[in-house]
Specification:
11 helices, elongated, Beta-Lactamase, 5-stranded antiparallel beta sheet, 4 domains, Helix Hairpins, 6-stranded mixed beta sheet, alpha+beta, 18% strand
């Protein structure tokens, strides 16, 4: 018999015996025994009330309840302590999961062995559209893609899976699965649409460069073969062949130079103010105007209005290249007799450089893509005018490095306007205000 049962036996025996002796002395021994049992029950009830109050309270060291309740309290305390520690460990694990998963940009979803949702992080709501009420639901109810269902059931997660987003078919999701815990799986879902677009742009860029170089190379190789096989060619014929080679060779040279410039602009950090020089834009535009008039051969009316009071902090060579590309494009795509206006003026607290023409204009659907590399509205016309298809891409990168923005407005038959907006932090104002006009 355990000690607490032994103690409790002697406790009730002692109380009843004392009560019996008292009853015997009074001449009522039976009532003494009954009174002893009643006294024991009252004492037992008081100890039970104390024990019940402790049980309903917080988890604290048990009091001395004496007898059977003392042992019960000790045992309950050990059980509740183990349960509390287990709950605390689970709570800590859940809290760490929530903290870690909330920091992930990808959707993290824990699935049980049947593919039902156990828990997920906040990113899963935006990427997969999951709600708190979706816990316990089969994940296939939300990603209804046969390739995903096969991937989930196959159990071979060595490779990642890429599928269209269930919320937007234009977006691409990358799904990775790994074992997690006991009979569970952790599914990580990332939006890789941007990466896919970059890869597509890279493939297109390589294809476009190859195509752009192949055409002039084919022309040059053709004339070289002709010259090689022409044993009786006179000096005039050779000169004609060389003259015909010069144009595609110059085109290749321009293309390579633009590619090298664009590569340098792409990899370069923004031009810091401390590393920049103060550029006299009015003077720079006079030089651009002179070159533009030579390129136009008098076929266009070109005017310049520049506020010489406003100077710009930047890299002069890059600014010259960007502005010159915009002016050159206007000349190339504006028919003879057209007008081109060049402006460098204040615009509120900022300044803007604008090139306007009254040429054929551009349809609205082309405007968002004009700064893409090798994107052309009219491929044949662009090549015949000597363009490389990289001019506006260079402009975009130059402006990016100078904290500026390019705005394009155009309508078919109403001409085009290309404006570059520079922030106040890039501007330097001279004391003497003067506006340069030329035309």
């Amino acid at each position: 018999m355990s000690s607490f049962w032994s103690n409790e036996f002697w406790r009730i025996t002692g109380i009843v015996f004392v009560a019996w002796l008292v009853g015997l002395l009074l001449g009522f021994p039976l009532w003494g025994i009954i009174a002893g049992f009643v006294a024991y029950l009252i004492l037992l009830s008081n100890r039970y009330q104390k024990f019940a109050t402790w049980m309903r309270g917080s988890l604290t060291e048990p009091d001395d309840f004496d007898g059977i309740f003392d042992d019960l309290a000790f045992r309950m305390f050990r059980i509740r302590s183990r349960s509390s520690k287990r709950k605390k460990r689970l709570s800590d694990l859940l809290r760490r999961w929530q903290e870690t998963s909330s920091a992930l940009p990808d959707a993290a979803v824990v699935l049980d062995k049947d593919g039902s949702i156990v828990r997920f992080n906040p990113a899963a709501s935006s990427i997969l559209g999951l709600k708190s009420s979706d816990q316990g639901q089969y994940i296939g109810n939300f990603i209804r893609n046969p390739r995903f269902i096969h991937y989930l059931l196959a159990g071979d997660y060595a490779e990642h899976l890429e599928i269209a987003s269930p919320l937007d078919i234009t977006r691409v999701l990358n799904i990775r699965m790994t074992p997690y815990g006991k009979d569970q799986r952790l599914m990580l879902v990332g939006d890789v649409t941007h990466i896919q677009r970059l890869m597509t742009m890279r493939r297109d860029f390589i294809g476009n460069v190859s195509h752009e170089l192949r055409t002039p190379l084919t022309v040059i190789m053709g004339y070289l073969e002709t010259m090689k096989d022409c044993e009786d060619c006179d000096r005039a014929a050779l000169k004609e062949y060389i003259d015909r080679i010069e144009a595609p060779a110059q085109r290749m040279k321009s293309l390579v130079e633009d590619l090298l410039l664009l590569s340098r602009l792409d990899t370069g950090a923004p031009a810091g103010l401390s590393d920049s020089s103060v550029i006299n834009i009015a003077s720079l535009l006079k030089n651009i105007l002179t070159e533009a008039e030579q390129l136009s051969h008098g076929a266009h009316t070109i005017t310049l209005e520049a506020d010489s009071d406003i100077r710009l902090r930047g890299i002069e060579k890059e600014i010259y290249s960007g502005f010159n590309n915009l002016v050159t494009n206007a000349i190339r795509y504006t028919p003879e007799g057209g007008e081109i206006k060049i402006e460098w003026l204040a615009y509120g607290d900022s300044a803007r450089f604008c090139v306007r023409d009254n040429g054929p204009g551009i349809a609205h659907q082309h405007l968002p893509r004009l700064t893409e590399r090798f994107y052309r509205v009219d491929v044949g016309r662009s090549r015949s005018s000597g363009g490389t298809g990289l001019g506006l891409a260079i402009v975009k990168q130059v402006l990016r490095r100078h904290d500026a923005e390019l705005h394009i407005e155009s309508n078919p038959g109403q001409g085009s306007e290309f404006c570059c907006f520079f922030p106040q932090a890039r501007l330097v104002h001279d004391e003497n205000d003067a506006t340069v006009k030329a035309g």
